[in-house]
Amino acid sequence: MSVKSIIKLSHNPTGFGDMTNQPNTAIFELTQPILHRHIYYEDEMLGLQIGVWDSIDMSEISVPHGNDEFMIIIAGAVKIKNNKTDNIQTIMAGESVVIPQCYDYQWHQQGYLRKFYLIYKPQEAPEKPVTENVVYIDETNDIPWQKTSDGHRKKTLYQNKNQRFTAGVWQSNALTTNLIAFPYHEFIFIKKGSLICTDEMGVANLFKNGDVLFIPQGTRCAWKVNDKVSIHFTQIK
Questions:
Q1: Residue ranges of the domains in the chain?
Q2: What distance in Å separates the CA atoms of residue 105 and residue 184, rounded to the nearest whole number?
Q3: Dihedral in degrees, nearest 10, Cα atoms 152, 164, 74, 87
C-alpha cells in the first residue's frame, strides 16, 4: 500500500463500516466497542499508517500510548485523562491534535466519534513521552511563528524523540512551485483557504477548507496557492 501519488482522504470511504476492526480487548474498561477502520496508506517497515476510524461509547484502562498519533476529529468528542495528574483535555470535532508516544492516559468517549489519523511507531520506543499532555495543533497558541527559507511561515508544535515526526501549522500567501519529488511523507489538513496540487501527469487536484490529504515521500507534484492557505501538517522524514 506504499503508492506514490496524492491521496485525498474521504470522511466516508467506500465500504467503510462493512467490516469491524478487531481491537485489543485488554485495554477497555467495560464492554468492547465496535470499531471500523479504513487504511489509505501503510508502510510497515517505517511504522506508518494513515486512515479513517470510528467507534461508539469507548473507555480505555490506563495505558501508555503505543505510537505518536496525529488525529483530526471529524465527528463527536473525546476526553483524554492524564493518569498522573488527572487533568482532562477535551478534543472536539474540527480540532487536530497529537498524542505523544508513551503518554499515559485514558480515552473516555460517550457516543459516536470518527477521526482521520496518522500513526507512527518507530522501531525503538522512547523511555518517556516528549510531553505529558495532548498537543493541540492550533494557529492561536503562544508559540512564535518562524519564517521558512522560502518566505512562508510555520509553527512547529510537536517533534517526537527521534525527530522524524514533526507536526505544526504552515501558512502561505499566493505561491507557485515547480514539479518536485516530495522529500518526505506529509499529512495535511486544510484549515483555511485552498491548495492546488498538480501531479506529474498534469492533473490538478483542488483541496479546500476541511479537506485532508496525504503525499507519500517521492511523489512528484507541484503546489499552487491563489490567495492564502493555512494547513495543519505532520511530516515523517
A1: 10-136, 146-236
A2: 30
A3: -110
10-136: which CATH architecture? Sandwich (2.60)
One fold for both 10-136 and 146-236? yes
Query: What CA dihedral angle connects 206, 208, 213 and 218, to 10 degrees?
Result: 50
Matching residue, cell 512551485: 177
What pLDDT is attached to residue 74? 98
Q: Are 105 and 80 in contact (CB under 8 A)?
A: yes
Query: What distance in Å separates the CA atoms of residue 161 and residue 64, rounded to the nearest whole number?
Result: 15
In angstroms, rounded to a whole number, what is the distance separating the alpha carbons of residues 143 and 162? 21
Give the predicted TM-score (pTM) of the model.
0.94
Mean pLDDT of the chain: 93
Q: What is 146-236's CATH topology?
A: Jelly Rolls (2.60.120)
CA-CA-CA-CA dihedral for 108, 109, 113, 117, to nearest 10 = 0
